[in-house]
Structures are given as structure tokens and as C-alpha cells.
Amino acid sequence: MNIKTRYSLLMLLFLGSIYLGICLGAETFTLSRLFSLSELDKVILFRIRLPRVAAAFITGAGLAVSGCVLQALLRNPLAESYTLGISGGASLGICAGVIMGKLSLIPFFAFIGAVGSVLIIISSSKRRFSNTTVILLGVALNFLFSSLVLFILSIVKNDRFQPTLMWLIGDISYFPPGILLPAIMLVTVISVHLAFSGNVYDMISMGEEKAASMGVDTDMEKKAAFFLCCVITGLCVSLGGIIGFAGLIVPHVSRFIFGSTQRRIIPVSFISGGIFLLLADTAARTLIRPVEMPVGVITGFAGGIFFLSILLKSGRREF
Question: Does residue 8 sit within a domain?
């Protein structure tokens, strides 16, 4: 199968996932119903369903792009915002913002929390820990941040506990509406920038010494990329909570199908990540309807198996 056919199939899958995301859920929209919408149908479609489809797509796209870049920079196949604890740090920041009543600044608090996690990871990496140990540190950070968030929730008003808990598990139905459009714009612009920097990340992934010999300022490039990944993660967590493993699965599958160069894989991961999370969210809305599952349950199940398989393959490395 040539590369053009693969891209064509990807675009067909993209269109199909959007169609399924719009039409399936507690309310099913057939083609005939789409062309004869009642007033109630318009409310469901334009105020609930379409924003949720957009939020699911851009969240999956952003997580996949950040995972792709982090794997290249850290030269670690298990690296992504969830396994490195960045998502957990963002969730702790958001929880702090909610407690302080700064709902309009939720993305900012998420970014601060994500940066804090990255600083811990970077400072720990300088001790020459193995790749597996760095990932275990990230997982430990996630547990620590999640525990702190649950502690905070246990002492706040009870009416906030249930929706916040669902959001922590990973849910795309509680995001503040004002965040969606800025998130779409920022995640898309940053992803385009990261894609144009793909050649630099390819050189860094071959080794920092080799990249430096080619004229790359590795320290500056890594700091800039980590900063942008924190922005993306903060926005994605603001929209969908802690959605694990989307940034792990998609880049690996994209590399397997489309090759390993970052300039090609980052745009493919953007589209594929959006498709993945959109289909997962559609499944969460339809598998046991009218009850909706958090999308994090589905991504966590699939990602946990994927994570375990990669970890077993890399088990030859010592901690």
C-alpha cells in the first residue's frame, strides 16, 4: 500500500469518525433526521454534540502531538504527558484554580501545574536515571498529584465532587465552553510549529551530542518544546481531564504505518489522535446508553495493555 493510499484512508477515517461522533449518543441522528431538525434537535446538535466532538478531537490531537514530541526529545518510547506526570500536575493546578474561584484562569493554572511536573522530570533526568526509571517517576508523580486532588475535593463542597471526579477519570462533557475555541486555535498553531521543527527533533532523538555537532542548540530546543507541550497538555486537561495513554498509543501506531520522521509523524499524530479520542468518546456515549462512561475508562484500558507490551519489550534495560 503506497503512502498516498494511506493518507487517503486516514482522511476517510477522519470524516467517518466525525460523522459517528455527531450521529451517535443518547440521541441518535439518522441522515433523514439531520436534514429535518426540530428545535430540540438543533439544541442537542449545535450546543451539545458538535462542541463535544470538537473538544474530543482537539484533545486527542494535542495529547498525541505532545506524546510524539516527548518521545523524540527523551528518546523514550513510553514518554507522554500522562506517564510523565504532566497531566497529573495540570489537574492539580486546575483543582487549585477551582478552589480559588478563578474559573476563567483554568488553562493558566493547568499550565503552571504541568510546568511544575516537567521541572521535576528534567531535574531528575540530570541524575542519569534510565528511561524506565524516569517513566516510573512520572507514574509516581501522577499518583501523588491525583491523591492531592482527591484530598482537596474531599474537603470542598459536596456538590462539586461528582462532576470533578468524573473529570479526573477523563470526561469531555464538563469543560467550560469559553475554553474550547482558544484551545482549538492554540493547539493547532503549536502543533504546526512543532511539525515544522520535526527535523530538529529527529536530530535530537539520535543523540544530543550528534545534534549539537550539526549546529542544533539542543538545550534551547528542548526547553522550547517542553514549554509548548506543557501549554498543549494544560489546554487538553482543561477540556477533558486526565485522559491517559492517548499520547502513547497514537504516535507508535502512526510511526508503524507512516514512517518515523517527526515532520511527517507529528501532523499524522494530530489527525490520528483526534480520531482515536473521538471514536473512544463516541463509544463511551453509546456502549451502555443512556448511561455514559468516562472516556478515560476506554483509553486507560487500551493504553494499559499497550503500555505493558512496550514495557515488557524494553525489559532488557536495567533500572
Answer: no
